[in-house]
Automatic annotation (TrEMBL), chains A, B:
Keyword flag Aminoacyl-tRNA synthetase: no
Highest rank taxon of the organism: Bacteria
The organism of origin for this protein: Lysinibacillus contaminans
Keywords on record: Hydrolase, Magnesium, Metal-binding
Annotated CDD domains: IMPase_like
PROSITE patterns reported for this sequence: IMP_1
Top-level taxonomy: Bacteria, Bacillati, Bacillota, Bacilli, Bacillales
Protein name stated in the entry: Inositol monophosphatase
């Protein structure tokens, strides 16, 4: 398997998809709601996913694709080459802000993450990694994450998880918010993951993410030493929604033990 | 007073200050702490403020300047022409993320906000307004804000205010977090204000801001119909720290009455 060839191809279709999305802003945007009003989907999400699927299938028809919009075939194992794609992560930002949304792609070979991409469409910023080789932000290598103390950390966490909720002990989250240097929330999991792998945030947590939200990011994480797990400290379940944390390795365990604690 | 001339001059020094800051990233950054560890200041903040002051004083030595770093003279009234400047709003973002920080400038004439600027230094994005004439995002006019329902609103609010705190009833903030479509937090007041005036957020609240955080923004707000007050619904106190809310006019009052409620 020529990973370098797949890497070059993946970058090409990501840049091309980005150009199509930026152009599409000049046309009208049709916004529908999926399962609920907070889960927006637009015609451009769907078109971008279809575009990516067609390109990948004509590149190699044996590659399988898991996509957010479900336009691909049914995939029930990570055997062979599997692309996990999110054409637009951060749809609400896309619709309302016209920025802060990402194309996220992870390419797995027999269950092992090999190539990961997070592309900030409006900034044209690419975070990516090749397993065992390294990670880059555009043309610059991303460094291994340096240790950080919890008091100096900036954490990506949404206000929802500071309020009482059925997932985690919010009193402990309140302690965390008071302890750290700052918190941020951007409305795009892939953006927050990209910020963690590049040291712009020191951790990011969420209570329910899907494989396509994190597929690309977890592969980049490994190359810079960021630790990505669910809230039980296990590998993320790529066939269901799951809880998620990605953190600087110096605070991952402390966060799970003291501050981001699930109800039993 | 030739406002158009001042406007052109202000834009010139903002763009020039932005270029200087972007160049400075190639040099080392000296980070000190001011009053506490969360209040970072760098040599570039100071140099940028000095640069702006020198330019303004040589443009017109009668103009007065209130600056975050306190490098200007003591100003105790808004009589005459007063510039309220923040060379880098979002210093923590500046240091850690190398993005999401703003130059913010408001120009007041005898207490009336005449010209307002928020400049995203890394994106080179300028939000600005001329009182009574209009507001712009780069070359595009900013539209009057359209009504929004609270259920559909996206609100800029930091996790700190969802936790119990001595300023506002956090139980009501929790209700708000559950009611709205989403919340965001970017770590730069000027950035969040720029997002409200351009409809990317529907409101932003903070418990303690200084004049330079909001001087430019409140002038832009007026031109697009955004309402900016303190949490008592009064005009912001430009000589002290104060609470602050800026919101789409359709939800400003509802937010203050039901969700962002100060302790007596």
């Amino acid at each position: 398997m020529d990973l370098q060839l797949i890497d070059q191809f993946a970058k090409n279709i990501i840049f091309e998809a980005g150009r199509r999305i930026r152009t599409a802003f000049t046309y009208d945007l049709v916004v529908e709601t999926k399962s609920n009003a907070n889960d927006l989907v637009t015609n451009i999400d769907r078109e971008t996913e279809l575009f990516l699927i067609e390109k990948i299938k004509s590149f190699d028809s044996t590659h399988k694709i898991i996509g957010e919009e479900g336009m691909g075939e049914k995939v029930d194992s990570l055997e062979g080459v599997v692309w996990i794609i999110d054409p637009i992560d951060g749809t609400m930002n896309f619709v309302k802000q016209h920025r802060h949304f990402m194309i996220s792609i992870g390419i797995f070979v027999d269950g092992i993450g090999k190539l990961g991409y997070i592309f900030d469409v409006m900034r044209e910023d690419l975070f990516y990694a090749i397993e065992g080789v390294g990670a880059w932000y555009n043309d610059s290598p991303l460094r291994k994450l340096q240790p950080v103390k919890i008091e100096e950390a900036v954490i990506g966490i949404n206000a929802s998880w500071v309020a009482p909720n059925r997932h985690i002990h919010h009193e402990k989250v309140i302690e965390l918010v008071r302890k750290v240097r700052g918190t941020r929330s951007y409305g795009s999991a892939a953006m927050e993951i990209a910020f963690v792998v590049s040291g712009k945030l020191d951790a990011y947590v969420s209570m329910r993410l899907s494989p396509w939200d994190i597929g690309g990011g977890t592969i980049i994480a490994k190359e810079v030493g960021a630790i990505a797990t669910n809230l039980r400290g296990e590998g993320f379940d790529f066939f269901h929604q799951d809880t998620f944390i990605i953190a600087n390795p110096s605070i991952h365990q402390e966060l799970l033990e003291k501050y981001i604690v699930q109800y039993d």
